[in-house]
Amino acid sequence: MKDCIFCKIINRELPAHIIYEDNHTLAFLDLHPDSEGHTLVIPKEHSEDFISTTLENIAFVNAAKKHVVRLLDAKLKPKGFNFISNNGAEAFQVVFHYHEHIVPKYVKTEGYIPSKNRVITKDNTQVYELLTK
Question: In whole angstroms, what is the distance from residue 42 CA to residue 64 CA?
């Protein structure tokens, strides 16, 4: 896709700190990291988000994530990782090219912190009934 920032990185039309690449994926450091080593892993084939991408691309991205995590773990020695994929503008997806975030954790209360701001209007029984009708 010609206006996609990530496609431009894949085509080397925009610079990036690429730390892993194979035939199907590319991994590069996030321009606005939540922690040292925050990496994005993307398929080279464009799709807008997780829902619209292929199962094959999901498998390629997950295999690449494993390589990247091993690299980050060996070189940066974090105490853990968060794996995040935002799907849609409401979920804070900014670049509409399917991608996965790998966010190394060094201190539990720093970097990416999942929200404790829960809003639940239906209990699990109600949700289950909606999903299984």
Answer: 9
What sign does the CA torsion over 63, 69, 70, 75 have? Answer: positive
Structure token digits, residue 122? 């239906």
Residue 126, classed as helix, strand or coil, is: helix
Clarify whether 46 is annotated catalytic. no
DSSP classification of residue 130: H
Residue range(s) defining the domain that contains residue 36: 5-132
Q: Tell me the CATH number at 41.
A: 3.30.428.10
pTM of the predicted model as reported, rounded to 2 decimal places: 0.91
Distance of alpha carbon 33 from alpha carbon 85, whole angstroms: 15
How many domains are contained in the chain? 1
The one catalytic residue in 38, 46, 99, 101 is 99
User: For the residues 30-36, what does the mean pLDDT come to?
Assistant: 94
85, pLDDT greater than 80: yes
